[in-house]
Structures are given as C-alpha cells and as structure tokens.
Amino acid sequence: MKSSTAIVLLLAAFIVGYAAGALSSPIREYIPTTTTVTSSLRVTSITTVEKFTGEVVEVCFSAVMDCSSILQGYLRKANKSIYVMVYSFTQDELGDALIDAMERGVEVVVIVEEKQVSQYSEVEKLRNAGVETYLDGNPFLMHHKVAIIDDVFVITGSYNWSKSAEDRNDENLIVLRGRELATLFMNEFKRVLMEAAPA
Question: In three state form, how does the secondary structure of the chain look?
C-alpha cells in the first residue's frame, strides 16, 4: 500500500514538474496526451485535449504587486475585442476601463457569475453604459477569471476583479500570449455565453 502511494506521488510530482517547466519556456507546443496514474484507491486520467502554442508574458501576485494596474493596462490597450468571464466583479477601475474601451470602438462582452451580483457589483454600471453584459446560466458556479483581448492575449489566474482580490487576498494573475491559446479560451467563452442571460 505504501509503495503504491509513493509511486503515485512520484508520478504526480513528475507531471507537475513537467508542466511547470513547459510554462517557463518562452514558446512551447502542447500535444494531446493522456497519462493514467493508478493506485489501489483510484485511477486518474490526465488528458491534454488540444494543441497550442503560447508564452507567459507577465505574472502578478496581488499581495505584493499591483495586479489591477496591469489588468487595466491591457484593457486600455485593446484595439479590437475584450471578452470577459469573471466570478466576482466589484472593482470600479476595471469597470471604467471596459466602458472606455467600448466607447473607443472595442467590442466588449462580459459574463459574470449570477450569484455574485450585488449592490457593489459593476454589472449595473456596465449595462447602463451599454456594455454587453450577461449573467451566467450554470446552476452551480461559473468560477472563471478570464479576459481574452484582441484574440491574442489571455489574462487568467485566481484573481477576481474585486477589491478584496487586490487589497486583501493572496491572488495570482497571469498574462499569456498566443492565438491558439486565445482560441481555446474563446471556445469556452462561447460555450458559457450560450447558457448565459442578458443582465
């Protein structure tokens, strides 16, 4: 029993180490593979189902860095489109940046988790400004924190677009660049949008 657990832990460590090394490379090709890890308790399959290239552009940790300013910078530099899926959205500055983008002709579409809409949410402000805004239709939770910008940048991580994420929590934000990668996230955005309802 102990030896099989040790084997599973070694395999898991190898997989995590390989993934971390892949992300640290400037450009990496991810090829569809399936790895099966077996123990006496359960069988787990880890599958990468798509192939893409991409690079890590920036990483931010909110406890010691200003992630909001980084995110605002990318929103303000958008030329064509911004598609957002976010669990919690209460940061006024990010709402303002999306409204500014829409007013300069950028297509802006936002999906927010319905259970997180409150008097503090940016949803009403966005809707009143004319930003295309939706509430997620998943009966459970839409827990994404993603912005897809100009079909090339993907901003994701644990960082909600909330004041708590910036000022209180330990959060991470990662900026990725790659058209294939953006397409993968865009496909997920379209799937979530199909279930969403206008705010």
Answer: CHHHHHHHHHHHHHHHHHHHHHHHCCCEEECCEEEEEECCCCEEEEEECCCEEEEEEEEEECCCCCHHHHHHHHHHHCCCEEEEEECCECCHHHHHHHHHHHHCCCEEEEEECHHHCCCCCCHHHHHHHCCEEEECCCCCCCCCEEEEECCCEEEEECCCECHHHHHCCCCEEEEEECHHHHHHHHHHHHHHHHHCEEC
Q: Give the pLDDT of the chain (199 residues) as one tens digit per residue.
A: 444 444 444 444 444 444 444 444 444 444 444 444 444 454 444 555 556 678 999 999 999 999 999 999 999 999 999 999 999 999 999 999 999 999 999 999 999 999 998 889 999 999 999 999 999 999 999 999 999 999 999 999 999 999 899 989 999 999 999 999 999 999 999 999 999 999 9
Are residues 35 and 80 located together in one domain of the fold? no
The reply to whether 123 and 176 lie within a common domain is yes
Task: Note the pTM of the prediction, 2 decimals.
Answer: 0.76
Is residue 99 located within the same domain as residue 135?
A: yes
Q: Can you give the residue range of the structural domain that contains 171?
A: 54-198
Q: Indicate if 24 and 77 belong to the same structural domain.
A: no
Please report the pLDDT score of residue 49 as a whole number. 53
Q: Could you give the residue numbers annotated as active site?
A: 143, 145, 150
Are 124 and 189 contained in the same domain?
A: yes
